[in-house]
Amino acid sequence: MQVFYTSPWVPPELIKAHGLEPRGIWFADDLGSEPLPIGAGVCAFANSVVRFAERHGDAAVVFSTHCDQLRRAFDAVAGIASERRFLFNLPATWQSTAARRLFTSELERLGRFLVKLEGRAPSAEALAETANQYGRARRRFLEAAPRVPARAYAEAIARFHWDGTTVLPAPRESNKGAVPVALVGGPLPRAQWHVLDVIESAGGRVVLNATEAGERSLWYAAEVPPMPSAETGLPPFRALRTATPEDLARLCLDHCADVFQRPNTRLYSWLQSRLTSRQVRGIVLWYHVGCDLWRAEAQPLREAFGLPVLLLEANQTASELPRQSGRIEAFLESLRGQSA
Amino acid sequence: MNAAPRKITLGEWEQRYEQLHRAGLREPSYGGRLGRHVLLDSDLRLRHLRFDNSPAALRLWNFLLTENQRLAQARAQGEKLVGTMKDLGTVPVMAYSLPGVRAFYPDGAWWTPCLMECSDGLLRQAEKLGLDASFCPVRAMAAAFQNAEHFPRPDLLVCSTGAVCDDFSAIAQRLEKMGFPIEWWEMPRRRPPEPDEAGRVLPGGLSAPEVQVACVRDELERVGRLLSALAGRPLDAAALTAGIRQANKIRRTLAALRRTVYGAPAAPLPALEMLVAEMLAIHFCSDREEALRVLTGLLAKALRRLEQREYVVAEGAARVFWVNPVADLRVMNLLEDWGGRICGSDYMFTHALDLIPEDLPPLEALARTALSDPMVGSTLDRAHRIVAECRACRAEAVVVSRIPGASHCAWEGDIIRRVVREETGLPSIELEVPPISDPLLPTLGSRLQALLETARSKR
Hints:
The complex is a heterodimer.
Chain A lengths: L1 E4 L6 H6 L3 E4 L19 H12 L4 E5 L3 H9 L8 E4 L8 H20 L7 H21 L5 H14 L15 E7 L8 H8 L2 E7 L34 H11 L9 H13 L4 E6 L4 H4 L2 H8 L3 E5 L7 H19 L1
Parallel strand pairs in A: 1-2, 1-3, 3-4, 5-6, 5-7, 7-8
Helix pairs in contact in A: 2-3, 4-8
Chain B lengths: L6 E2 L1 H13 L13 H6 L9 E2 L2 H11 L1 H10 L3 E6 L5 H5 L5 E4 L7 H4 L6 H7 L11 H8 L8 E7 L3 H12 L5 E5 L11 E3 L5 E3 H22 L5 H27 L7 H13 L4 H20 L10 E6 L6 H8 L2 E7 L15 H10 L7 H14 L4 E6 L6 H16 L3 E5 L8 H17 L2
Parallel strand pairs in B: 3-4, 3-5, 5-6, 9-10, 9-11, 11-12
Antiparallel strand pairs in B: 1-2, 7-8
Helix pairs in contact in B: 3-13, 7-8, 10-15, 11-12, 11-13, 12-13, 16-17
């Protein structure tokens, strides 16, 4: 059975280890740009997930509380295939034992849910083996991040979230004249990948994809203490011999760097090192209509990194594409002007 | 001096105040003419409101409108101030259990643009902080912290996070980046226990798994340690138990007031004063003992009027259950002008109205109370409580009031109205009320009047 998940912090290895098929929703070709309901303030992404869940009554969908709108969207689908709907309570804090226990208990509860879907509970060794496969794959993607073209990279990571496939894109051709920018923000579903093409065709180069299921979502068990390799800057992978939900919870919470966390300082630390090392000259802040969490970060991002920030709203219709393109072109033009 | 109960303007309150004063009105230290709040504090909205004409209502308004001054006085006297955000009712019970500590909700600044008719400039200032009109009016809080012209800077700031509104969470996060450190505590999204899980009954009749209760209990214990450190003395079980008992006194008085007013054949007190009275439950308007006296006075007035069959809203008004607080207080007046009355409410803090269990260890009791917050669980839970209360208070219509930009409002209105319709058949509408609703009055009026007519036609 396919189990669609809506946050990269719900570890797909747990689903896979139960013998079910985890499907990161960002790759779904019918997760799209539905018109928003009349009620103002609805998050476009949460709305898409609701419509998706309604269409896929035969599949399981794991919602997550990392976004209030997605949490409430779960209430909107209650009663429709409810035995295949699950709301995962992702804690917003990570510093306390209470948060760790909450995360662990949610993973255990998710496990029971998966068993009810005809999954089978994995042994600690089997869970470790699956977690190792995912961890190694994530590390490979991280190694490749600085060298590969943005669109192909987004596709490859989304495919990995979809079916676990690890196909690394070929390194990008050198384009020294292009302006290095970071794409930071919320979910970037398949239907919106064109934004990467628009940025690159306007003379930009996305050297950091920090959208929800992009590079930020690639965590793995690292050697402790971490001794980053000189070549990649990444600490070596540490294979797990056994793994429990508690281990997965610890790993997820240790690596989570997201906007919903309180405080969201880890997101900023994560960005800081990469923006510097990749010489980013501007940030494109990607957000969906109705997403308060990301919209509110525009000014703090400017203040924290001293970089120009372009607020880019996910377009809902094709007719909005020219406006979006125009904004990107103007932004890149202004960045090029700064360097001249 | 007794007068027939009615709603009067600010100007009429001047004469009424003179009469009461001549008749020997005794007021607390924060008392005085209502008009001074316009002159001294620029609470311009008062000019467009109509108030109950009783001394009990005068005391309520003066209590509400002097909160910032009273907080400043407390600070000057060496008391510690705790800014508690989002949980609406739980952390203040803990803070007031310690002598010399006062808790208040900086979130309350969301009403400042309404009260000051935007002359405060807070919403404009919030926009400069990157918090534009797509966010809830609680963004005024961030600006109020920045300009320090409203409430004193708290000695400690705590904020619940997790199952909270994204707009609030984002605004609070902005606040922290502005240099106001926040202690965050985790609030899980409440769910019912699964068949194989141990569950705990919550105030209000819902239940939650033990693992969630334990999470909140641990987090509140951590908050308690912070409060202890601030106060310089331990917040032990005895102090908490006494604090819970005091909070419950207020909750019992408020429950009696709500029963009296909402259950009466016609309203002995207006909707606006009742909204303000309910708000006292969440942090006692920064003075727990005085909040009890204010509510006791209102209850006595309501009982006397009921006994004498004196009402401020005539019999026959359509009985409305109101969901969510309004950003513009004037709308509560208008509901009554257009032929409605409030017979029940869910202003987003029903957990601050329910009694805190006194037969449990205090932190356990507070954790269960916090988890019964209508905003941390499923909207369906909230809708079912609304249905039960609509039945109990014989509601004829339901209004779901939207708060502009609030993330919970995007989804909950449809769900609540659907459940209400399916289970009771009551007519309902959803209205968005901005901080100053004057330009929208024709639309608001026609929608509300249509609802009230529909409700009356079903009699």
